[in-house]
Each structure stands twice: as C-alpha cells, then as structure tokens.
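Standup notes
- DV: blocked on the single-chain target, sequence here:
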Amino acid sequence: MLKVRDIIKELERLAPPSLAEPWDNVGLMVGDPEQRVTTVFVCLDVTSENVREAIDCGADLILSHHPLIFSPLKRVVEQDITGKIVRDLIRNEISVYSAHTNLDHADGGMNDILAKRLGLGAVRRFTQDEATDSTGKPLDNIGRVGDLAMPMRMEDFVEFVEHALSCRNIRWAGKPDDAIHTVALCSGAGGDGIYTAFHAGADVYLTADIKHHEAQLATELGLNLVDAGHFETENTICSFMTEFLESRFAELNVIPSTAQSYFQ
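- DV (later): unblocked, structure below
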C-alpha cells in the first residue's frame, strides 16, 4: 500500500529539498505523510481549477511545481483564495507536495527537461565565473546552456521554440538574421540571468517574465532574447512527472493537469 511518504521519498531522490533557494518553500504543504495514495494529480500551480480537477479524478495527492503556500498564512477562511483552496483540500483529504527551486537546480530537473524539449546537446550548468553580474558579484546559478544540432536564424529559432513549447504568447528581442547555435536558458522568471547567459557565450537566452530594462540590457550586450512564457517553460512538469512516477510505481494512477496558460 503506497503512502504519501513513499512518493515523497522518490521525489526527494530526484530533487533534494537542500537544493532549494533559501527564500523558497518546498515540501509537503498540506496533508499527512501516512495517507494512502492511489492517484496523484500533477500540475504547475495549485489553483482552484486544478484542485477541482484533482477532486473529480479522485486524487489523494497533488504534486505541483509552484508552492501552494509561499508566504505565511495568517488565516484559513473561505473568503480568502488560498484559504479556500486549503479548506477544499482538507475536506477532500488531498495532500499537496511542491518541488520548486530544488527541482530547478536538480540534475534531470526542470531546466534539463526544458533543454531536452528544445533538443539541445552538450548541456551543462553555468560555471561560477559565468554566473556573475558586470562587477563580478555572484548571481543565482539556475539554468543551463547547450547547443542546437544545427545553427538556425534567430527568427527561425523563435518559430521553433513557439512550436516546441506550444507557446501562445511569445516575445523576443534581437536580430532576425543572427545565427543561433549556443542557447542559454532558465525556466520560469529568469531575467536576472542575462549577464550569466552573456558570459557563457550564448547566442540567445530563453526564459520568461522579461522586464523592459532586462530586454534593454540584453540588447546593449548584443544578446538575443526569447521570453517564451512562464507557463510554457515550466508546464513540462506535467508530462515529465507523469512518466517519472509511473516508471517507479506501477500501481499508481498519475493524471496530468489540463490547465492552459492565462495569456492568449
């Protein structure tokens, strides 16, 4: 009989909580490690929509990337969005486990998944010397850099990413005719990694949630930039974790979320 703790043990082999950033909140958000599990629902965010879907499919455990509880809760009431979600989870005896920046950092985790989706080869982490700002100050080293099998024009690379990640709202900055071979990437909001990508010798940096001044910086550095969307760069967790759990627990029913990006 599988229990929540059995699933957690396997997940933490892949993404140890010790890899999480100090500001992050990972692990069991709601529930009981001793709860029996027959069905797991996998999603990017623990939203009202995903909780309803989890309830409908009879899930005992939700596995999410983004933490359900990020800041301390001061109350758990029906009139508060997070409070209502927590109450719904408890009423339906659904546990929630979140693997966030620990999965971003992990070998085989979120950024390696993204690199694989893009078909990159010779994928590696950034070196300590690369993960610095213009003054040499260390930056968060979350992301990867790798090479395309064959170079392509920047404009064609954008189209390639759009199809590879099913992007509904892609933005980019750069020169349409630049040759793209080396790709730096960071899943989710990675605007603070522009200098890192530049120092790594990348032709393009692919991430999400890029701000105006970050695009300005990349342009000044001569670094092509693709904002492929937060959802699109991280929703790969659904298919990956479905396969991951099914390969380790034959008796487990794993159901991925069908949620779509908010942006059209």
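- Follow-up: The mean pLDDT is 97.
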